[in-house]
Amino acid sequence: MVSFGIFSLSVCLNHILCNDFCVADLSPSAPRVNGFPCKDRANVTSKDFLFTDFRTAGNVSVTGTNAYPSFGTVLEYPALNTLGITHVRLDFGIGGVVPPHTHPFASETLFVVKGSIYTGFISFDGVLYAETLQQGDIYIFPKGTLHFQINVGTGPAISFNSLNSQAPGFLVAANQLLLSNIPAAVLESSLGISKAKDLNLLEASVPPFWG
Length: 211
Ligand SMILES: *[C@@H]1O[C@H](CO)[C@@H](O)[C@H](O)[C@H]1NC(C)=O
Ligand SMILES: *[C@@H]1O[C@H](CO)[C@@H](O)[C@H](O)[C@H]1NC(C)=O
Prior knowledge:
single chain; 211 residues; mainly beta; Jelly Rolls; 2 domains; five-stranded antiparallel β-sheet; 12 strands; binds 2-acetamido-2-deoxy-beta-D-glucopyranose; Germin
């Protein structure tokens, strides 16, 4: 409702003109669109805008790299629908790594909540930009750049990350290269390795979680 003095204009009549939010209707019976349709506005409450999953640390033991990404995408946090934001909580054990990866549709900031993280990205002209961050620091990974994180502190580390898309995409470089059925001849030539000696070993050693 928008009020103009004594007049009251119901701009949300029939929900046609409201685009301030569109809490996703994730139900399988909802129509398929590029994104998610809006939950019936009459059924939206303040709880829809609250996200509490990040109260709990991710289990770093399950990934094979001693780090765990907990996602707050539109799937976990339907109020993000159409608003162009995704959040991630990263938990790291000592030495924990988030493998080199890209988000083709979003830039990302990483805020260190706890610990010390070495992180960086490779620019489109092949330069590594990287820093060791302390608690309270922020780093940014420009859209589409390959980036990674490693916990270089003496205890666990936590970061809170934000991406400017509700569907940023998440492509792990090792998996794309080694687990996507690219013909061996292509990889042998591209990497200068032999299938029997090197490629089988590499393919078998990619941590399964990230695949
Ligand atoms: C909205 O809430 C009402 C009352 O709880 C329920 O009957 C109706 O199915 C809900 N609509 C949707 C689209 O979820
Ligand atoms: C974390 O994962 C490991 C390996 O799957 C499991 O043994 C352990 O119980 C899990 N810890 C918690 C707190 O869920």
